[in-house]
């Protein structure tokens, strides 16, 4: 492909390109583009690897930050430690017990998402799943129904953690702890928006401890309170 006439280059989801290892391919493409061009970079987070890409390929760029929608003072974070066999039971108990508006439950895999969806449905909780295995049209329809309160609980992978505008989410449950601390950030900012309170609940089995410890070491400013199991 001849890129010698390219006038504009857009790097969207730059942080994800770095995290997923695509950036080497992107840099090959950038080197084939004219040096005299407009380059725009969009990123949910600006950690060092993403900043380096900006420094390397952008010429005196103007930095524009979106207004922060989440109030940290109104966001409570907590965690429970359980054995693997009681993880699903605790989730069902909390979803039924907690007084909540819309609820999002995050899982790390499609398989876990479908499994939790079936468990909640079996317990008479109005819910729907969303993950990358579903078509775009199905995902959009599900989000629209969720936004309009047609069901209360959305079980999802990180495909729902970015780029979606969902109002009225009061509770975030992390059934699985994400491997990357930045994914945790994307998950929890779905709540405590526009002046409302929000609650993040992490359900930790032994297999989640490594990811949880990594999160706590990276984000020492977080106050994540331990809760006693029912």
Give an account of the 3D structure:
With 230 residues, this protein is an alpha/beta fold. Helices cover 34% and strands 19% of the residues. The protein is built from 8 helices and 9 strands. It has a 7-stranded parallel β-sheet, with helices on both faces. The protein has a two-stranded parallel sheet with strand order 1-2. β7 (169-174), α7 (181-188) and β8 form a beta-alpha-beta unit. The longest helix is centred in the middle third of the chain and has 13 residues, at 110-122. The termini are far apart.
Order of the strands making up the biggest sheet: 5-6-4-7-8-3-9
Regions with little confidence, pLDDT below 50 for 5+ residues: none
Spell out the helices and strands N to C: EHHEHEHEHEHEEHEHE
Q: Tell me roughly what share of residues is in helical segments.
A: 25-40%
| Average pLDDT taken over every residue | 90
Annotation, overall tally of beta strands = 9
User: How many DSSP helices?
Assistant: 8
Cα distance spanning the termini: 61 Å
Biggest beta sheet summary: 7 strands, parallel
Tertiary shape: elongated
What is the gyration radius calculated from CA atoms? 20 Å
Assign the structural class, choosing from mainly alpha, mainly beta, alpha/beta, alpha+beta, or little secondary structure: alpha/beta
Percent of residues in beta strands?
15-25%
């Amino acid at each position: 492909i001849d890129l010698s006439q390219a006038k504009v280059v857009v790097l969207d989801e730059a942080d994800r390109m770095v995290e997923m290892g695509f950036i080497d391919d992107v840099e090959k493409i950038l080197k084939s583009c004219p040096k005299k061009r407009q380059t725009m970079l969009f990123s949910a987070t600006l950690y060092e690897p993403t900043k380096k890409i900006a420094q390397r390929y952008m010429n005196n760029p103007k930095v524009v930050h979106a207004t922060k929608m989440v109030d940290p003072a109104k966001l409570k974070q907590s965690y429970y430690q359980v054995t693997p066999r009681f993880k699903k039971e605790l989730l069902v108990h909390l979803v039924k017990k907690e007084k909540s508006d819309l609820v999002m439950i995050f899982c790390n895999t499609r398989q876990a998402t479908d499994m939790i969806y079936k468990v909640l449905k079996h317990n008479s909780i109005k819910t729907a799943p969303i993950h990358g295995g579903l078509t775009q049209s199905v995902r959009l329809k599900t989000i629209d129904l969720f936004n309009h309160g047609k069901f209360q609980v959305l079980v999802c992978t990180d495909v729902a953690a970015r780029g979606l505008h969902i109002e009225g989410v009061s509770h975030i449950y992390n059934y699985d702890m994400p491997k990357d601390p930045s994914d945790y950030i994307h998950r929890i900012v779905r709540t405590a928006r526009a002046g409302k309170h929000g609650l993040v609940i992490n359900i930790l089995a032994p297999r989640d401890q490594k990811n949880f410890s990594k999160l706590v070491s990276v984000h020492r400013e977080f106050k994540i309170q331990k809760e006693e199991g029912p």
